[in-house]
Amino acid sequence: MNHFDHQWQKLTTLARSAGEPRDATAPSGFATRVAARAARAPAASPWAAFERFALRGLMVAVALSVAAVAFNYAEIMSESTDDLALTDTVGEMLDLP
Predict the structure, then answer these.
(1) Entry pTM
(2) What does the alpha-carbon distance between residue 97 and residue 92 come to, in Å, rounded to a whole number?
(3) Which residue in 8, 41, 90, 95 has the most C-beta neighbors within 10 A?
């Protein structure tokens, strides 16, 4: 028998010899302490999970925006402002003569 099987057999033997747990009672004042702790604990906001995920989503959106600007920075700076001023963007989009 390997080490695990030996420990398992020992554990099951101890579990079989354990007493009946139903006759055990809670200590004096246990229910009062549990109720006091429940009343003292702050109530969880229903929006707490949404806030955590919203903050993570905002951080991802900011990171993607910074990455997009970083990758296109050279192209943005290479375009001449004169070319942009001379083109008729609305006319091109509407195919006006």
Answers:
(1) 0.37
(2) 9
(3) 8
